[in-house]
Specification:
Layout: H1 6-21, H2 34-37, E1 40-47, E2 50-52, E3 56-65, E4 72-73, E5 98-101, E6 112-115, E7 122-125, E8 130-138, E9 145-149, E10 155-159, E11 164-168, E12 175-180, H3 189-197, E13 207-209, E14 215-217, H4 221-224, H5 235-248, E15 249-250, H6 260-274, H7 283-294, H8 299-331, H9 335-352, H10 362-373, H11 376-406, H12 413-436, H13 449-477, H14 486-504, H15 521-537, E16 543-544, E17 547-548, H16 554-562, H17 582-592, E18 596-601, H18 606-614, H19 619-625, E19 629-634, H20 649-667, E20 674-680, E21 686-692, H21 700-715
Parallel strand pairs: 2-12, 15-21, 18-19
Antiparallel strand pairs: 1-3, 3-8, 4-10, 5-8, 6-7, 9-12, 10-11, 13-14, 16-17, 18-20, 20-21
Helix pairs in contact: 1-9, 5-20, 6-11, 6-12, 7-11, 8-11, 8-12, 9-13, 10-11, 13-14, 14-15, 16-18, 19-21
Length: 716
């Protein structure tokens, strides 16, 4: 129980969960954000308001900036489209009751120009009302009656001198009209032919919010020419399509057996590290001394009680570790889990800083103490239970970190059980040794000021982890991050690292710290490491010509990947683009004769981002990629920028689930990332010519050789 922290924790959970729930539904007149409505009004009119099947209608979308707010809006297709940083997004919604036709263009209004924030060139904008017109044909299959068509693919923004506010199709008014019964005598033959034969034109580039409050293009001008965005398929149809692929794919071999011993060794190492945490270390001599006194110095009795004590710890922690390992792959991507973990780590960090204490409820604490005081085997068991529960506050982050590393590769039950037992056994082993050899207790360093410093450093680390969890949650909840952006979280890490370095230099003290006239050499070294890390990461927060600075080295590459930069609809560091539809990639393969490279990935996959940022841009790998049709199959949810019009979070998640089911059925693993080379065959089958399952790529040359070898096999 958190004594004085429960109200704070509840408040933090409420505040942090609020953005996730702030998804207003579509009412009859839309639901514009208050900040947007204060700066501009939006109206949608269908002309004529009543039409029969096959007739042409005009949808008039009007944005009127409010003069009293001194606001403005932007064109959707500015004259300097590749360079203008801020614009509206205008794309045809997918076919439904209305089938959109023709071409999209900005109306002929008096567009003004102003200098760009970058200082290079001019951006178009207007303070006057602007009306876009979208032509559509009432679908021959539309049912009779009132209709409200959601304008998917449209995203508007309005700005003032302070900020810019965006509103997407979910918050804009729908296009309302009525479908009348009967045959029409005013059908435009050309419009009807275009609507019933040709799909809607592709959507323009999708802008994303910029750090300055406006927007910026998602890719560079060169990359935009090859951006791959798709029209969303119905979720049932996509799931059926991927299910059908399971029977068509041949030649997929089961992955090699998991490296059990390496996994067990890693688990044991994390268990040993947990022993030096502030909640655990001071309890070692205390708890061992208690049951040594019960044994009256007898070796046999000490052996029995030590065994009971350690087996109890192993059982409780082992079950906890097994549960995390079993479900971490699912839990680690669920937004609610990440919000709760972020709030929990924030509460724990404040506790380690000395703001309040976290302990067991008084009733439970008294009961455990009463049971422990009875002595013997029963008292020893309850003593171990009490110690395990108390220490879990500090052990949980290490246990969760270990489970997170194994989470994408933990489908093998024997491996999970062995890992959980190894973690718990390594944690409990010192107690067994110390119980048998009491003299070793004297060799342990005494608790004191050094342990308080460890607590504070752990608090800083848990604060950094909280930011990461909250960012992961927002990535799953919103089409694009608006609060815990990559820049904000990275800036938080820079500040945390700097503050930790100053603390270790005794620049300030926290409530439980002792006054120290000087610091030790190890403390100075750790302080310099934290300050150096802060200085090393800080340049990544700066942007020149709209491009972030990227410090060189593997440390930043790991930090960048861990904080999950948003994926874009083009390949990082190369000219060719990636698709997200396997059928389209196979169709392209038939025409080009090139095999298909499949990247099973995820929005919240750290190793995926490391490979994409460090390995894929290398010349040898990039040259090989040019000889493939490339497709990314997201197994959690497909990012919104890959669509011509956002189908909504539920549809994007359903598509990711279908991709994950396909991966598990064909390749017998849910590991991320997983890379495979496929090629369509004359008999309609799809053959697998290579699978690369290393996860994080440690040898780029080996990966490039895999690409070349698999491509040559597919060509034979």
């Amino acid at each position: 129980m958190v004594r004085s922290a429960l109200p704070l924790a509840a408040f933090a959970l409420f505040v942090l969960a609020a953005p996730a729930g702030a998804q207003p539904g579509i009412g009859a007149k839309g639901n514009l954000p208050k900040e947007f409505a204060a700066r501009a009004s939006v109206s949608v009119e269908v002309v004529p308001a009543k039409a029969k099947r096959g007739e042409t209608v005009l949808i008039k979308l009007t944005v009127a900036p409010r003069p009293e707010a001194h606001a403005w809006t932007y064109p959707a297709f500015p004259k300097d489209g590749e360079e203008q940083l801020s614009r509206n997004t205008l794309a045809f919604p997918p076919p439904g009751d209305l089938i959109f036709i023709g071409k999209l263009a900005d109306p002929a209004v008096a567009w003004k120009e102003k200098p760009r924030d970058t200082g290079l060139g001019l951006d178009q904008y207007t303070e006057s009302p602007v009306t876009w017109e979208l032509k559509a044909v009432v679908s021959p299959k539309a049912a009779v009656g009132p209709k409200a068509v959601l304008l998917e693919g449209i995203r508007l923004q309005v700005c003032d001198a302070r900020t810019c506010i965006a509103a997407d199709s979910r918050k804009l008014p729908p296009a309302e009209f009525t479908v009348e019964d009967g045959e029409s005598t005013t059908i435009n033959a050309a419009d009807y032919a275009e609507a019933t034969k040709a799909p809607p034109p592709p959507a323009p580039k999708e802008p994303t919010p910029s750090s300055a409050g406006g927007t910026k293009p998602t890719t560079t001008a060169a990359q935009d020419k090859v951006a791959v965005r798709k029209t969303a398929k119905p979720t049932d149809a996509y799931a059926a399509e991927m299910k059908a692929f399971e029977t068509r794919v041949t030649g997929a071999e089961p992955p090699p057996p998991p490296t059990l011993w390496a996994f067990v060794a890693t688990a044991a190492a994390w268990g040993l590290i947990s022993l030096v945490t502030p909640c655990v270390f001071p309890m070692i001599p205390i708890t061992v001394s208690i049951f040594l006194k019960q044994a009256h110095g007898s070796l046999g009795e000490r052996l029995k009680l030590a065994s009971v004590y350690c087996l109890t710890i192993i059982t409780v922690l082992g079950l906890s570790a097994f549960t995390l390992l079993k479900f971490m792959a699912w839990l680690s991507t669920h937004p609610v889990t990440n919000v709760l973990l972020g709030a929990l780590f924030f509460v724990l960090a404040l506790s380690l800083f000395g703001m309040y204490d976290i302990g067991l409820p008084n009733a439970l604490q008294k009961r455990l103490q009463a049971k422990q005081s009875k002595g013997g085997v029963v008292g020893t068991i309850f003593g171990a239970l009490a110690f395990t529960v108390i220490s879990f506050t500090c052990v949980a982050p290490f246990l969760g970190g270990f489970a997170g590393i194994a989470g994408s590769d933990s489908s093998f039950t024997v491996k999970e059980i062995a890992g959980g037992l190894a973690f718990a056994t390594a944690f409990a082993a010192p107690f067994f040794v110390l119980a048998l050899v009491p003299g070793l207790l004297k060799a342990l360093p005494r608790s004191g000021g050094w342990l308080d410093s460890v607590k504070v450093v752990m608090g800083f680390l848990e604060l950094a982890a909280a930011l990461k969890f909250l960012r992961t949650a927002e990535l799953r909840l919103l089409p694009s991050t608006e609060y815990f952006t990559f820049d904000l979280v990275l800036g938080g890490w820079v500040a945390i690292s700097f503050a930790c370095g100053l603390y270790l230099l005794n620049a300030y003290r926290l409530p439980h710290d002792e006054e120290q006239p000087n610091i030790s050499v190890p403390r100075l070294i750790f302080a310099l490491l934290f300050l150096g890390l802060s200085a090393y990461l800080a340049p990544a927060l700066l942007k020149f010509d709209g491009k972030p600075q990227r410090p060189s080295g593997s440390v930043y590459a790991w930090v960048e990947a861990f904080l999950l930069p948003e994926d874009k609809p083009t390949e990082s560091g190369a000219e060719e683009a990636w698709g997200t539809d396997l059928q389209e990639a196979l169709d392209a393969s038939k025409k080009s004769g090139q095999p298909v490279f499949v990247d099973f990935t995820g929005v919240t996959c750290t190793n995926c981002r490391i490979n994409e940022g460090n390995v894929f841009p290398l010349p040898a790998v990039r040259d090989e990629f040019r000889k493939f049709e490339k497709v990314k199959l997201y197994t959690d949810e497909v990012p919104e920028p890959f669509y011509a019009a956002d189908p909504g979070g539920r549809a994007r998640t359903a598509e990711g689930t279908a991709n994950g089911d396909f991966q598990l059925a064909v390749f017998k693993t849910n590991q991320l990332p997983l890379y495979a080379v496929l090629a369509p065959q004359p008999d309609g089958k799809v053959k697998v010519f290579g699978v690369y399952d290393e996860g994080k790529i440690n040898d780029a040359g080996k990966f490039a050789a895999f690409l070349k070898e698999s491509r040559e096999k597919a060509k034979r």
